[in-house]
């Protein structure tokens, strides 16, 4: 076999092996990171020191059932149970609203929420992995 062909074959072989090794390392690292992140969250939720973890969610209301709201955003959905004592506010702009002007907030009842509203919910992540809504803002 000629020397140039042998060099090309060895080079291609090395590239294939490196691609396989790097792919394995990347995928393993990604899975390890996911497991580490999940373990951290579980440890925080189970800790006697942690009082709760908060997260904000937002989207368009697509379903209302009792005090449970289903939100949709960018082809993803999420269902959140809303706490009975959760404050609910609607943002109101004046007719002459200009960007940068303050917006007033009006407190409303849960029954005033309707399908199609775009909302933000302050949630508490519970130890069982569910979300509980602790405050709502309707935009």
- Percent helix, as a range, is 25-40%
Shape: elongated
Which fold name corresponds to the CATH topology of the largest domain?
OB fold (Dihydrolipoamide Acetyltransferase, E2P)
What about the largest sheet? Answer: 5 strands, mixed, barrel
Order of helix and strand elements from N to C terminus: HEEEEEEE
Number of strands: 7
Oligomer designation: single chain
Going by CATH, the architecture of the largest domain would be: Beta Barrel
The stretches of 5 or more residues where confidence is low (pLDDT under 50) are: none
- Going by helix content, strand content and strand pairing, the class is alpha+beta
CATH class placement of the largest domain:
Mainly Beta
- Please list the strands of the largest sheet in the order they lie side by side: 1-2-3-7-6
Rg over CA atoms: 25 Å
Q: CATH superfamily of the largest domain, called what?
A: Copper binding periplasmic protein CusF
Query: How many domains?
Result: 2
- Mean pLDDT, rounded to whole units? 80
Number of continuous helical runs? 1
Ends distance: 73 Å
Strand content: 35-45%
């Amino acid at each position: 076999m000629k020397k140039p062909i042998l060099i090309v074959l060895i080079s291609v072989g090395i590239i294939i092996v490196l691609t396989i090794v790097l792919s394995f390392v990347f995928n393993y690292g990604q899975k390890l990171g996911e497991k580490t992140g999940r373990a951290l969250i579980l440890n925080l939720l189970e800790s006697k020191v942690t009082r709760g973890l908060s997260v904000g969610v937002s989207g368009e209301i697509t379903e209302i059932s009792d005090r449970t709201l289903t939100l949709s955003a960018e082809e993803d959905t999420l269902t959140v149970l809303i706490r009975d004592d959760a404050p609910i506010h609607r943002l109101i702009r004046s007719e002459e609203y200009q960007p940068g002007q303050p917006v007033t907030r009006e407190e409303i009842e849960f029954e005033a929420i309707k399908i199609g509203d775009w909302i933000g919910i302050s949630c508490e992540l519970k130890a069982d992995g569910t979300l509980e809504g602790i405050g709502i803002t309707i935009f």
